[in-house]
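Appendix B. Worked example

We walk through a single record from start to finish. Start with the input: the chain for LysR family transcriptional regulator, Streptomyces fildesensis, length 301.
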Amino acid sequence: MELRDIEIFLTLAEELHFGRTAERLHITPSRVSHVIKKQERRIGAPLFERTSRTVRLTGLGEQLRDDLLPAHQGIQQAVDRATAEARTGTGIGTLRAGYTTPWCADLLLRAAEVFRGRHAGWTARIREIQFNDMYGSLLRDELDLQLIEFPVYEPGTVAGPVLFRERRALMVPADHPLARRESVSLEDLAEVPLITVDYEFPKPVADLHFPTRTPMGRLIPRGPSYTFWPEVPALVAAGLGASIVAARAAEYHDRPGIAFIPFRDGPTLDYGVLLHADKRAPLVPAFVGLLHELADANGGG
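Next comes the structure step. The output line below is what the pipeline stores for this chain.
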């Protein structure tokens, strides 16, 4: 079985649709059908069950997919490694990645360890990004990618895949009445000053993290502002306001004087890969794929 035929089979096994498979691989649906029929003749049994409405893998097809997928991924990684070596001349390099939260750092550091094992001669350098310069390092070509909160509306950048989604929580002073509740709603934001930042975000981002009104139109009072996020727990513990955070922040930032109360409504906080729109370092696709692999294996982060 030729490598291209394996790629067609594995793509159809993922998409379960001849048209989408053809579009993704830039070939015709008839080419997809011809290759699958040739594979089935060679093996001697159907790999897919086809009707006018659905395409499903047979038991044999599932077995073949599971057997072929690791080998195909290994071939892709070998090609990525050879491509990187051809571009760099030495096959040695450093991939640079940034993060804004400790749970993003955890994922990046796990990926860096696996990355070094898979790509001989390469390392991954991980560094923290400050909120007052969220995108500068990437745009100045000091980073190859960032793992960051979405959405992002920054010229010169392009969003990659979302890796995980986090429930939101409200970080409040421990003696505030909201701290005694099992959950809060977006309407409860009218009951406590909201700590903000001292620089501007695009409106969709500001509305997500620092809304000015509740869904019913009630004014949300403003608390003090901050430059660096580590200031926020101290401001909350001092009773000066509350902050919308990922629920997971309770695992990393808990301290005396604050409480984390989950929201029962509203959107999630989504974390994904941010890339430079025009520059793409060798092995970035391989590293992004590795992040996806590890995030999926850990249930989304």
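Two observations about the output. The first helix runs from residue 3 to 15. The chain has a mean pLDDT of 90.
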